[in-house]
Amino acid sequence: MADVVNIVARMLALEAGRAQRVASHLQFNIQPHALVICPLAMAGEDTTIHAVAIGAIGAEPQIRVVPDPRVRDDQYGLVRWMGDIIEAYYARCRANGDYPQIWAASGAAAGHLDVMADRLRFVRDNAPIQRVGALLTYATERAPVEGQQALMTMTGALSAHYATGQQEGEDQHLGAVLVWLDPPADGDTRRAVAIAEREVMGVKTDPDFDRDVLQPLVSRYHQSLKSGANAAQMQVRVKAIEDALSPIVARIYAATQRGFAYLIDRFPPSGVLAQLHAHEAAVFESFMQARDGGMPLPYRDTPKAGAFKIAEREHAAQSVAAGSIYGDAMAQARARMAGDILMGAVRDVTLIRVGRKRVFRFIVDTAQQNLHMRARDELAWLQDPRLKCVIEGVDKQGPLSSVRLRVSAGMNAVGAPQDGAVIELGPPPPDWRALGRERVKMASRLANTPWTHARDAAPPAPSPRRRPISSPRSRP
Amino acid sequence: MSSAEFLAQLRGAHKAEEPGARGIERVARNPDCLRLRALTIAGFTPASAAEILGVQSKEGQSPFALSMGMRFDKHLVENGAANLFALYRKEGLLSVQEAKFIAIDDFAPGASPQALQKRLGETRRLLDAKRRGDPNAPNIIVKPRLLVDLVGVPHAIEPDYLVAADTDVFYRTGELKSYPDRGGKTDPADIRSACRQAAVGVVGLRQALASLGVNDPAQIAGPAADLVLRVTGLFMPTLSRMAIEGEVASVERAISEAPTNLQELEAMLPANASFEEASTIAALPNNYRPSCKEHCAMWEHCRAQALDHGHPVVLGDQAAELLAPAGSIARGLELMRRQGQPPRNSAEAALGEELRAANDTLRRAVGDG
Q1: Would you call B198 helix, strand, or coil by DSSP?
Q2: Which of A467, A353, A358 minimizes the C-alpha distance to A411?
Q3: How far is CA B343 from its chain centroid?
Q4: Which candidate in A7, A21, A121, A206 is best for mutational testing of the B interface (most B CBs within 10 A)?
Q5: Smallest CA–CA separation between B308 and chain A, in Å?
Q6: Mutate which: B55, B61, B64, B301, vs A, most A CBs within 10 A
Q7: Beta carbons of B50 and B57 less than 8 angstroms apart
Q8: Is the Cβ pair B65, A166 closer than 8 Å?
Q9: Are B318 and A21 a contacting pair at CB < 8 A?
Q10: Is residue B290 within 8 angstroms of chain A, CB to CB?
């Protein structure tokens, strides 16, 4: 189903020429010590970093450029320099029981870090470079997991809080998004966006710039190198390339830093963020312990590891969806629209005793048309989720639905709801420890790799066909 | 007026540009865009059209990317395609004996009409040999030259290579791409584009077989292709065998609908209209989609037009679908606010309700921020 709220916000943004808020609460933790990394690759050379700007939130960037990233020693020099910064940052976070957070300008930049992580950790005979790859892998492997706080993109973060008057794909250009957030004084947002889009905000430089500026500079650098130019002459060549690329990464870095101004102190934190913080710190510690223990980080997962990761992602998606509705007005509103929250008047509260146990039952009458609930679903009271109920049945009478519920937990701590009260019940808060229990079960089930996933394994022989029962007369 | 005369009129003094597999693939990507189709049929690339429209075209590739692509292709096809052959050997798809290789370029290098004609003829001869089951037919043919007929006008394409084991009935097309193969993380847009280009090759093979008198070419030239990508960060190739039924069907549909498009165009355009005029191009109905930016140099012009008309697609595909009953963003806002004309039908009324509910939700949750 289309996210109608988001579409309405985009319509309003286009009409106003200004981005519209679509979040009531901050959707991510912004680590005050987070590291902003803005890499620039050479076109066609997907595993290179030609220039990079790095710095903390609000800090001036440290910029490093190599004359030609295809020259391995130059490239590894840059990677080692970047690795030293990341290593020190990770160590500080670990010492404080915290987790590191890396911010990239856009999905393309985050994707590039992912490619780099995949490549660097398999570099042969170069432990420091492998280490940089391994450290980056923490952030890049977390990126696809819902609710992760390790690798953030500024375009993604801004899109989670604001709607622009353009397509979702166009929101991947950070410069354009910033125009929507801070439109020009003359009100011509459309023209300003078109101008902003001409600036490079991804990870590759403009093809025209490459052809007209960068390639001649790189060629001259190589010519000087071949002709045995002296150090001063080489320095001139190197500086020319630095002067060409530094402003580009500096601009991307500045735009990323500018984005924080639209997030920090603009929204109260969402209720689920404290749990996500603790969870991320635990995941980071576990990752680092595995590095200490020399555990490899394979390029492709084994079937078992793959199954664990799928379970982790599913668990994260469900947990974040369930957890976000507590302490986030917008998430609650979306859940109401989607029919995931039951809202109505309580009636017929009854108490019966079954042995020593007290069983409360009640009915909620609602006019909601799009409820997505069924018998045996467990719900929690949004106001105090300790009170949990199980749906025993749903009766439809014209536009009204009567949902029959049994209190399953919290009757002593919270008490049963009162007749006539208006109540809101939604999915219970997530159990962040459930994944650990799930993994124990999975480990035992996957102790032997199923034939479907085992290399060169033959399918099991079909079970022998049962012979038809012969009639006594046909027996020999 | 015949199709050829009409196309000549549309072209005017413009020298016809070969769309190549990439150009035909582009049409199949957005089959509802009459503007793109008409220009392609008439021999205009989107970049030329963008220039006529006064749009700054950004279709060129970086020289670094071009150089990388060329080096990768060369690495695979040089020395008798030794590396490409080794890849197929490694995958167990060709045996040691199946090393018969031909580079069509070697027969007649260059771009002279005679050389191009010679390459076409040689390709045809080799395809015929394979079709007849000749055991000497090559296993790998690099840069075969094929024709794809568009409204009676043959357009030449050169797939990267064709491959077949001796026991195979016929060739399958192969595409060499220097994208890093990252398994499930490989950019799906890159894969889609490569598969569509390969599909144009399949259509070219089918048309070649038809011209050789084969009754059911689709039976012989199946909808399958091989993609050769690069191991991340290295020059080592990887091979993926792809089923491309959907891509082949979309290319064939785009080609089969082209004559109808010409009749539509003739009826739509004023007499003596030519695509050399920006106004003629701008008057052609288009179908701007969010994905146009990936492949069409005219996207900025088309987006500007969509914005001028307040077309919901400027907010994305989902918005275009949701706001279809209203037809424009302005009308959608009117329905949401109960302003302007009352709903013209039940679809508009339902849309108005839905938008109002969403707007109320937004206001309640975030205020007017």
Answers
A1: helix
A2: A358
A3: 40
A4: A7
A5: 11
A6: B64
A7: yes
A8: no
A9: no
A10: yes
pLDDT by position in tens, chain A (length 476) = 458 999 999 999 999 999 999 999 999 999 999 999 999 999 999 899 999 999 999 999 999 999 999 999 999 999 999 999 999 999 999 999 999 999 999 999 999 999 999 999 999 889 999 999 999 999 999 999 999 999 999 999 999 999 999 999 999 999 999 999 999 999 999 999 999 999 999 999 999 999 999 999 999 999 999 999 999 999 999 999 999 999 999 999 999 999 999 999 999 999 999 999 999 999 999 999 999 999 989 888 888 889 999 999 999 999 998 899 998 999 999 898 889 999 999 999 999 988 888 899 999 999 998 888 899 999 999 999 999 999 999 998 888 999 999 999 998 888 889 999 999 999 999 988 888 898 899 999 888 888 888 777 777 777 766 666 555 554 44
The Cα angle at residue B46 between residues B71 and B64, in degrees rounded to 5: 20
Residue B84 corresponds to which amino acid?
A: L
Nearest CA in chain B to A330: B365
CA–CA distance, A66 with A76 (Å, rounded to integer): 10
Which residues in chain B are closer than 8 Å to A190, comparing Cβ atoms?
307
Chain B CB contacts of A21 under 8 Å are: 366-367, 369
Residue from A3, A8, A120 whose CB has the most chain B CBs within 10 Å, to mutate: A8
As a whole number of angstroms, the distance between CA A103 and CA A150 comes to 8
Closest CA to B7 of B33, B38, B42, B34: B42
| Alpha-carbon span A152 to A164, nearest angstrom | 19
Nearest partner of A217 among B65, B63, B233, B72, judged by Cα: B63
Q: Is the ipTM of this structure higher than 0.85?
A: yes
Contacts of B329 in chain A (CB under 8 A): 11, 14-15
Which of A4, A215, A333 lies closest to B355 in CB terms?
A4
